[in-house]
Design brief:
The complex is a heterodimer.
Chain A lengths: L49 H40 L14 E7 L6 H11 L12 E6 L7 H16 L18 H15 L4 E6 L7 H13 L6 E7 L6 H5 L2 H4 L2 E7 L4 H12 L12 H13 L4 H18 L12 H4 L5 H11 L12 H42 L17 H10 L3 H12 L3 H16 L3 H4 L3 H16 L4 H19 L21 H4 L3 H10 L26 H11 L3 E3 H25 L12 H4 L7 H22 L2 E3 L6 E4 L9
Parallel strand pairs in A: 1-4, 1-5, 2-3, 3-4
Antiparallel strand pairs in A: 6-8, 7-8
Chain B lengths: L8 H12 L5 E6 L3 H16 L1 H7 L3 E9 L6 H12 L25 H21 L1 H8 L5 E9 L4 H4 L1 H8 L1 H5 L3 E7 L3 H4 L10 E5 L4 H15 L14 H15 L6 H32 L22 H22 L6 H7 L13 H13 L4 H4 L3 H15 L5 H5 L27 H4 L4 E2 H15 L6 H5 L5 H7 L2 H12 L3 E3 L11 E4 L3 H11 L3 H4 L5
Parallel strand pairs in B: 1-4, 1-5, 2-3, 3-4
Antiparallel strand pairs in B: 6-8, 7-8
The chains are: A alpha/beta, B alpha/beta.
GO biological process, one term (chain B): DNA replication initiation
Main location (chain B): nucleus
Subcellular location (chain B): Nucleus
């Protein structure tokens, strides 16, 4: 392509050239991404195929977490889904008598946080005819409409009608082809089809139109569609299902005229939103005695998740993104994370290039110095490491289980105390607006929960007899309902509770003594349970701990990132240029790409920039660069230094370039770099002063 | 003349006479307030006129055929032609026939243009004539007269829409009789006056005007009470529309109209409110009746003399005057709450009726009971901003900044939000302008509506708000950013800020006023939340909103 498309750039007869984009030329680095994780910091002690193995482990762990979260979300939304489905199915059953005219049933679903899965759930249930209840529910034929489908009335009506026809199928073969059929956007066409279709089926299903992102629909068009449908409502059982994200429940009232509103019978349904989603997901994923996550997210990430959710983006998507990123980061940071699910075999570990890995493992797992056996061969050494790691894994998970059970007990007690109007702890276990519930989870993970536990113990001492009995019952019930594998480890508290219960019921004067006994026991019990996970050996394999979340990846500050990118391009791009040592801390200006050079000079100027001066200063830098490159090329011909982008093809033969050509090249590079800055918004054009531009960015803290 | 709604007798008489004698080719009916009722009245009238036996006697052998089309539903010319002709010949397309339109013997497509439509009209006319001639033999025997010809009446409802959707049809339609050379009359019914939709240059002839007066209260009451019979059902005795309750219903409607008539004259709206309130209003009576009947069934020896309101047969009888008075007093206050909720359709009638269903044994409650209940119900309705509360914190700040940007004049920004390096206090506006300067009093921006603002201004105000009112989360970042204001500077240029703005635009809490395809210059927005909402948000964020408003009203 290059050959036949060779352009003569020196052609003076043309004012502009089209240089076609040719991706094959210099995009070797854009090869299809390999399914591996990024290189870890401690790469030298990684196993041979460590990246692949860790990726597999990551996928397994993340899938478990994702499945759990999705199940929780489904549980959250199931209630609303059921209501909406019921409403749609019974839309035409028993309307209020005495209305002046029939209204179109409109079900508006306000779903700010749960994402599209909610609506998918609804439509799936609507279309399932088997799941119908017997109480007069009607089947539904569901079609979906997106804002793009309804640019105007004609197209909108045609889409609605053709979708229904495609969905339901055409009932009877048409006997004859009329000369002038009805228009395909005429509602009478739908009417005729519906009659024939319903007759053929022997039942009359509701016609459900799902309008996705309803706020994006053009109100004047929708208004007419509502009007047209309302004229045929007695013959076509149409139901509109509006999906909205607008949190204010009266969007319809605000956007549509009263005349249109009077044609509709709107019923609003709101899905759970806000912190309730976050709390439910976190509690049930990481603090549920029944569920054991593979990777435990540490307080730093949870804190960020809480901040991000309440501050920037309250949706399930945000939670999933952050959890996934945390998983990814965890698995890509340390080669040891390979041990999350299973330990590599003896054969793998005893390979010579695994020795560093093995050393790292055994250094962490070694019980004591004396046991070290100098003449232990690699095989037995790795066997010992494997045994140790397996033991530690079991221990770690059991510790986490203890933590979860302990936290659940605290949660139960707190809820119980609140329900009896005790002040309890200074956070609320209420999912809806539980202030500080997230902080409590963080405290539990950080191990600074003992204060709360002691406080709980103090309160329980003051409980009345009846309350104490109830509390004991509640806790016993909780232990009783634990899954069997967890319950087997919790025999002792159950026995204690039973014993205290029986003492309480046997002697009516024993309240104080039982209460104090209970208080002591519960403090001790929780103290044993709520142990920080960091105390376990090799904890950082399963637990992200205090390692910070890469928040700048998810939510960078645009301006700061762009300026930082211009000032320090080598910190952002790998392999920008091979000849420059990317690790050296400071770079002289000639080593930077053109745009960065120009930007540095930009920062040196006053409020207005004289373009010619700017160009001159740029030229000086390029001249320096040229001479440096010449020297480098002379000394080392093999790694011919090339600047990325601009004029690099010509630089290979820079010996032959005469000064004139060099000047043209400098000019071209200047113009290009300036345009790049212009696109980024750093330049404001003005006609006030000839050859001058206005800076838009000031007061940059340029360290160099 | 038949008249289906009281108060329309004159109109019916006038129009009926015109149509059956020598109708003008173009009639324009304007009704500002109750156009739906006019539609139904005229529809009934035309049906009656088309009724064969009737027209053959009174119109001297002219058969009237009519078509009603809705200008909104017929949004292009083809639909309009099809609707008129199919409706004239009362043809209904069926799926088995391939959804064809009505076709005359002459093979032609008449839905393509005006000319073809005129041919189609003539074909339809010929077809109707021939149909009538077929029936002539019988008609002669029966009524002793045949039809000389067929008269076509085309009614266009909501004719004001023709001006936007089919402007090219407006002139031909008003001259349809001369174009088609048929005995034909076109009637436009609209809420808008003819002078507002009249084509320019006098292209259309002046119509015969009929203006419909807004219905009087008495007529509406009569009309609504007359509706009762249509819905009443004597089958089950526990039925709010039992015939025995008609006198009570008449009283109820009278009270309802007393309360609501000053605000709306539309019989449909009043009927809507009545439909929502009536089941609750009559419930105590029905409950009482049920109880008595059960008692009567339980106890064999019923004292018939004592029970004046109910007969021993268990039939529902109208309640006594005293019960009626009590009901009036109990429900009077709830009528206006019903009106306030239902007229703007803040809720629908069925849901309102369910939510405001009176408790059992209501008649034994104090008379202020319903009033209190209504008050508590309206309080519960205030909780509508629940969704706004669930917004992320930054979105709330953005909304607040947008509200300020839309309300304050741009020139005031520096004074409202600017602050020097050393002084921590914001410069407040010096004095509120004195209104008595003799000039025209300036209208507050909040009453004028939100003004558009550029994205940059929104971001700048957001920065000022965050700097003053946001707590810096204790994170690692705040340790790096030590220069005052630097943290906020980072914060307002974050990706999330921009994505939140776009999300709020998608939710229509902000309106984007500049087209999305325009790349030059910053995008413009306008705030779409009300003052009350903004105040609520400010309260949640602990921002003193009134201090930040240039024109605190």
């Amino acid at each position: 392509m290059q050959d036949d498309g060779a352009i003569n750039l020196d052609d003076v007869s043309k004012t502009a050239f089209c240089i076609p984009y040719n991706p094959g030329e210099d995009s070797d680095d854009l090869a299809p991404p390999k399914r591996v994780l990024a290189k870890s910091l401690f790469q030298e002690r990684d196993l041979e195929d460590g990246q692949e193995l860790r990726f597999a482990a990551y996928r397994k762990a993340w899938k478990k977490c994702l499945d759990r979260v999705q199940t929780i979300v489904q549980e959250l939304e199931s209630q609303s889904v059921k209501q909406v489905v019921h409403e749609v199915r019974t839309s035409y059953i028993s309307p209020l008598p005495g209305l002046p005219y029939p209204e179109i049933p409109v079900v508006s679903v306000i779903n700010p946080g749960l994402g599209p899965s909610f609506l998918e759930n609804i439509t799936a249930q609507l279309e399932e005819s088997s799941a119908m209840n017997s109480d007069g529910d009607v089947e539904s034929s569901v079609i979906h409409l997106y804002p793009g489908d309804v640019p105007n009335l004609t197209t909108g009506m045609r889409t609605i009608i053709s979708n229904f026809l495609a969905k339901g199928g055409t009932p009877d073969p048409v006997k004859r082809k009329p000369m002038a059929p009805l228009a395909s956007y005429d509602i009478k066409y739908l009417d005729a089809w519906y009659r024939a279709w319903a007759n053929a089926q022997g039942k009359s299903p509701n016609l459900v139109i799902v309008l996705h992102e309803f706020e994006q629909f053009d109100p004047p068009v929708m208004q007419d569609i509502f009007h047209i449908c309302s004229g045929h409502i007695s013959r076509l059982p149409i139901v509109f299902l509006l999906s909205m994200t607008s949190p204010s429940s009266n969007y319809l009232n605000a956007a549509y005229s009263r005349f249109t509103m009077s044609l509709l019978r709107v019923r609003n349904f709101t899905t759970p939103s806000g912190v309730r989603i976050l709390h439910t997901i976190l509690l049930k994923t990481f603090f549920d005695p029944e569920f054991e996550p593979d990777i435990i997210i540490g307080p730093a990430t949870l804190q960020y998740l809480n901040d991000y959710f309440t501050r920037y983006h309250s949706s399930v998507d945000a939670i999933l993104t952050i959890l996934q990123l945390a998983h990814l980061k965890h698995f890509s940071s340390d080669p040891l994370t390979i041990l999350v699910h299973s330990t590599p075999s003896v054969a793998t570990l005893s390979r010579p290039n695994s020795s560093l890995f093995l050393q790292a493992v055994s250094a962490r797992t070694k019980p004591s110095r004396e046991e070290e056996d100098v003449n232990m061969d690699a095989q037995s050494l790795s066997q010992r490491a494997i045994d140790q790691v397996d033991k530690i894994r079991t221990e770690f998970y059991s510790r986490h289980r203890n933590l979860r059970v302990g936290f659940a007990v605290v949660l139960r007690m707190q809820t119980f105390l609140r329900s009896y109007y005790y002040k309890g702890l200074d956070w609320s276990a209420d999912l809806e607006n539980g202030n500080g519930l997230c902080d409590a989870m963080l405290d539990a993970l950080r191990g600074s929960f003992m204060r709360d536990v002691k406080h709980l113990g103090m309160i329980t001492k003051k409980l009345k007899r009846d309350e104490l009995r109830r509390l004991l019952e509640t806790l016993y019930g909780f232990f009783h309902e634990l899954p069997s594998n967890v319950r087997s480890g919790e025999q002792e508290p159950r026995m204690h509770l039973v014993e205290m219960q029986s003492r309480l019921s046997a002697d009516s004067n024993s309240t104080i003594s039982v209460a104090s006994r209970f208080s002591d026991w519960v403090t001790e019990y929780l103290g044993n349970k709520l142990v920080p996970l960091e105390e376990c050996t090799l904890w950082d394999v399963w637990y992200t701990g205090q390692s910070p979340f890469p928040s700048e990846l998810l939510n960078p500050s645009l301006r700061a990132s762009i300026i930082a990118g211009l000032l320090r391009p080598y910190e952002f791009v790998e392999n920008l240029d091979n000849h420059v040592d990317a690790n050296s801390a400071t770079k002289s200006i000639w080593e930077l790409p053109d745009t960065s050079i120009l930007f540095k000079r930009y920062l040196d100027s006053g409020k207005m920039i004289n373009v010619y001066d700017w160009f001159e200063s740029f030229k000086i830098v390029l001249d320096t660069q040229r001479s440096h490159l010449k020297d480098a090329a002379n000394t080392d011909n093999a790694t011919s230094p090339r600047k990325r982008g601009k004029g690099k093809a010509k630089q290979a033969q820079h010996e032959t370039i005469d000064e004139e050509k060099w000047a043209v090249e400098v000019q071209a590079r200047f113009v290009r770099a300036m345009h790049e800055l212009d696109f980024l918004g750093f330049i404001k054009h003005t006609g006030r002063k000839a050859d001058h531009l206005i800076r838009t960015v000031f007061e940059i803290d340029d360290a160099e | 003349m038949t008249c289906s709604f009281p108060g329309y007798e004159h109109v019916c008489f006038e129009l009926g006479t015109l149509l059956s004698m020598h109708p003008p080719p173009f009639i324009y009916i304007q009704d500002i307030e109750s156009v739906m009722t006019t539609f139904s009245v005229i529809g009934t009238l035309l049906r009656a006129l088309s009724d064969e036996s009737y027209s053959s006697i009174s119109t001297g052998g002219v058969k009237i055929c009519h078509a009603r089309v809705d200008a909104i539903a017929c949004f292009n010319a083809r639909l309009f032609y099809e609707a008129v002709i199919n409706s004239l010949v009362q043809f209904e397309p069926s799926w088995e026939d391939g959804c064809g339109n009505w076709e005359s013997d002459v093979e032609m497509k008449w839905n393509e243009n005006m000319d073809a439509f005129l041919h189609g009209l003539r074909a339809a006319h010929a077809d109707l004539c021939s149909k009538n001639h077929k029936g002539k033999g019988k008609g002669k025997e029966r009524a002793g007269g045949g039809y000389e010809h067929v008269r076509l009446v085309i009614v266009v409802e909501r004719a004001e829409r023709l001006k936007e959707s089919l402007p090219e049809l407006l002139v031909p339609l008003t001259r349809l009789a001369e174009l088609a050379r048929l005995d034909l009359s076109v009637i436009f019914i609209s809420q808008v006056g003819w002078e507002d939709i009249r084509p320019p240059l006098g292209a259309s002839p002046d119509p015969y005007y009929i203006d419909i007066q807004s219905p009087s209260k008495e007529n509406i009451v009569r009309g609504l009470v007359a509706n009762f019979e249509a819905i009443s059902d004597a089958q089950s005795s526990y039925n709010p529309y039992h015939p025995a309750l008609k006198p009570l219903y008449a009283h109820f409607i009278a009270i309802l109209c007393d309360v609501c008539f000053p605000f709306t004259h539309s019989p449909q709206e009043l009927q809507y409110i009545a439909a929502a309130r009536w089941p609750g209003f009559v419930k105590p009576v029905l409950d009482d009746h049920l109880q008595t009947r059960d008692k009567a069934l339980d106890e064999e020896d019923v004292d018939m003399e004592d029970d004046s309101a109910h007969t021993s047969k268990g039939e529902l009888v109208p309640p006594t005057e005293e019960v009626r008075m009590r009901l009036n007093k109990l429900f009077n206050a709830s009528l206006s709450t019903a009106f306030e909720a239902l007229l703007p359709r803040l809720t629908n009638a069925a849901d309102w009726a369910r939510a405001n269903e009176p408790p059992g044994e209501l008649l034994s409650f104090p008379r202020t009971f319903m009033l209190e209940q209504a008050k508590s119900a309206s309080k519960a309705g205030d909780d509508k901003e629940e969704g706004i509360r669930a917004l992320p914190r930054l979105s709330k700040f953005i909304l607040l900044a947008a509200f300020l940007a839309s309300t304050n004049p741009p020139k005031s920004d520096l004074r409202m939000f600017g602050r020097g390096l050393d002084e921590k206090k914001r410069k407040r506006r010096v004095v509120t302008k004195s209104a008595g300067k003799g000039g025209v009093a300036k209208v507050s921006q909040r009453l004028l509506g939100p003004t558009p603002f550029a994205l940059d201004r929104l971001i700048a105000i957001l920065g000022a708000l965050l700097e003053e009112n946001d707590v810096q989360p204790d994170r690692s970042l705040s340790k790096i950013l030590t220069i005052p204001g630097e943290y906020t500077d980072m914060e307002i240029t974050r990706v999330s800020v921009y994505s939140n703005i776009m999300e709020l635009t998608a939710m229509r809490l902000l309106h984007r006023t500049s087209p999305p395809e325009r790349l030059d210059g910053p995008p413009m927005f306008r705030c779409a939340v009300s003052y009350d909402t903004a105040l609520g948000i400010a309260k949640q964020l602990d921002v003193a909103l009134n201090d930040l408003l240039w024109d605190p009203v």
